[in-house]
Amino acid sequence: MTRSMNQDTHEKMTVDNLKKQLELSKKREKNMKKRIETLEKKVEELCLSDQDKDDLKQYGFKNTQICLDIKMKLDQMSVSNQKKERIRIFEQLILYMNSPNVKKFINYHDNFKYVSKQKIIEIYTQEPSLSRFLYVNYRNIFNERIPYCE
After folding, report:
1. For the chain, what is the domain count?
2. In the predicted model, is pLDDT for residue 117 greater than 80?
3. What pLDDT sits at residue 116?
4. What per-residue confidence (pLDDT) applies to 93?
């Protein structure tokens, strides 16, 4: 009986010890994730061009880089001869516009915002295969429903 009690006590201590080790491991993992995030931010800051640094300081987003990315997508669309390819690139552009920094860019540049809305509405009415995709993303990008068009 004494042996059984000793065994039970030993097993309980082992289980408790394992629980403590697991908790410590989880804390270490959480701390490591925080340190990795901090280091990733520092690396990103070190890799920024002077233009990006200026843009971040002035606008709070990489204005020049966003302009270049959007221009590249539009150029790809204009060069493409196939409708399916242009639609695929347009979908990528809409998804890109849905990112937080590009939303800031859109809200900062009223003319771009106006033209983007009009173009999305135009394609929404002309291309039924994209209607749901455009409806959802228009609402996410501009924080309003796409206007009803007849």
Report:
1. 2
2. yes
3. 92
4. 94
